[in-house]
Amino acid sequence: MPQPLLFGAPATMELPASVPVVEPLGAQVAATSTHAVEGEDSVLAGGWECSPGRWRRKILSKEFSHFIAGHCIFTPDGGSLSSFVPAMQYFSLRTVRGLGRSLKPCVKVLSSFADSRNSRNFGGAECNP
Hints:
- The protein is an all-beta fold.
- The chain has a single domain (about 20-120), classed as Sandwich (Jelly Rolls), CATH 2.60.120.10.
- It is about 0% helix and about 50% strand.
- Strands 1, 2, 3, 4, 5, 6, 7, 8 and 9 form a nine-stranded antiparallel sheet that branches.
- A hairpin with a 5-residue loop joins β6 (about 60-75) and β7 (about 80-85).
- It starts with 18 loop residues before the first strand and ends in a 16-residue tail after the last strand.
- About 30% of the residues are buried.
C-alpha cells in the first residue's frame, strides 16, 4: 500500500548547507539548499530555499510549488514574467527554462514528478554538487 511522504513543517525542516547555483547571472551569486524525500512512482517532495541573486533556471519535470517566504521572479524563455510571494502556488507541466531571480530570501515546499536523476535540479535551480 502506498505511504504518504512526510518531511516536517517547512519552518523546522533541516536543509543541508547552501551551494551556489550552476549558472549564476551577475555579481550576486544565488545559493540554494534543498531537502527531498522520494516516494513511490518517482515523486519527490520537500523544501527549497534560495538566497538573493539571478540564474538560468530550468525545471526538468512536472512541479508543484507553494511559496512560504520571500520574493522570487521567473521569466520562462519566450514567456512572461511571473512574480512569487508567500501563499502563491506554481505548477509546471513540462520542461521549462528561463531566468530566475530571488529578490528576498525565498522558501518554498514542492512536489516534483520525475525520476530521481533530476533530484539535483529539485526546485528549479540546479546546484553544484
